[in-house]
């Protein structure tokens, strides 16, 4: 074990939260699980084992790409909703008609105006 690792181990052992310290085996296992979540890792079936730094870099890059994808999808959704709202509000163009409040079948009860066709 290197001297820096030993000093970190001693520091972790002297703290009240030493039971929370993560062992190197746990770190390796967590990195392995993290690598399995990356799309590149899924295609190689874990055959290629990268360094911890490489796994963390790939993870950060993947998270950034997911954020970009969310932003793009949010923008697309906003544009589609805006188009839908504009279509719905356009006069003379109804996609959804409200049912009439009073339904009459007897024409004699309908109002008659000279400019309205019979």
TrEMBL record:
Biased composition regions of type Basic residues, renumbered to the chain: 84-96
Region of interest: Disordered: 1-24, 84-118
Keywords (A to Z) from UniProt: Transcription, Transcription regulation
Record domain BHLH: where: 11-66
Biological processes per GO annotation: regulation of DNA-templated transcription; regulation of growth
Keyword Manganese: no
Molecular function terms, GO-annotated: protein dimerization activity
Keyword Transcription in record: yes
Pfam short name (any one): bHLH_ILI
Polar residues biased stretches: 105-118
Biased composition (Low complexity): 10-21
Protein name per UniProt: BHLH domain-containing protein
Organism: Zizania palustris
């Amino acid at each position: 074990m290197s001297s820096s690792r030993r000093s970190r181990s001693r520091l972790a052992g002297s703290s009240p939260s030493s039971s929370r310290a993560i062992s190197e085996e746990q770190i390796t296992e967590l990195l392995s699980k993290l690598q399995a979540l990356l799309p590149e890792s899924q295609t190689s079936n874990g055959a290629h084992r990268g360094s911890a730094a490489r796994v963390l870099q790939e993870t950060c890059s993947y998270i950034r790409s997911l954020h970009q994808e969310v932003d793009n999808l949010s923008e697309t959704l906003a544009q589609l909703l805006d188009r839908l709202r504009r279509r719905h509000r356009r006069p003379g163009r109804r996609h959804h008609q409200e049912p009439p409040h009073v339904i009459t079948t007897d024409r004699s009860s309908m109002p008659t105006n000279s400019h309205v066709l019979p």
